[in-house]
Amino acid sequence: MSLQLICVNISPIVAVLVAIQVAAVNSQTINENGVLQPRLGRKILSAGHSVDYVIKPSDTDAVVNGSATLYCKINSVMTSTSVKWFGPPNFHFRTEGRSSGHPRYSVTGGEGEYNLLISPVRPEDGGMFRCWVRELRGEPAEAMLTVLTQTGAPVITGYSNPVREGTTLTLSCTSHGGDPPSTLSWSLGAAPLEGTTDDNEIRATIRITREHHGQAVACTASQPGCSVGEHHCVVP
Known about the structure:
- The protein has strands at about 1-10, 15-20, 25-30, 35-40, 55, 60-65, 70, 75, 85, 90-95, 100, 105-110, 115-120, 125-135, 140-150, 155, 170-175, 185-190, 190-195, 195-200, 200-205, 215-220, 230-235.
- By secondary structure, the chain is mainly β.
- It folds into two domains: about 45-150, Sandwich (Immunoglobulin-like); about 155-235, Immunoglobulin-like.
- It is rod-shaped.
- Its main location: membrane.
């Protein structure tokens, strides 16, 4: 608390010193480590004015070179010009209001909506994001963006045409890349086919019978958040 002395002229003869109390009002900021820190000089509204999130951002998966939207909606009757987004690394400042200094980041939505659109997504975008209204009390709304690298298409090896009845067909399926790695599986027609997995390879052994004629043997690579890839061969 500080005192400011102001000289007020009451009459031509008498001067009275009036002490006026000046309140040092705390505001908050986020440091480079993402921690809320107090600083002087900017007013925060009273305890009755807390941030009212209509929609908070939620954890989201996105694929490299795709797009991702983190949703944040504030009660429209509140001050919203200072809605800010912070993101990786270490909660760096990303946007304020509708403005963005980042070429791949933009703010979308209608009244009260400050949705963060990232396009195209890059691996370095993965991490924790915060939507925060600086002038209002309350905790920032946080969400984790997980960036996925799509796996390569599965490739089947070990077959040749024609396949004779009574022979044993040993097939191998591989898929490379991907974060997280894909899961490989076999199917014969509409039924699953048991396989043996070793790192990024899965093998299947089939004893060919007449019933297998014309059926498709398929290897599928599935990955959370990504489209499913498939490679198949047909038993002639």
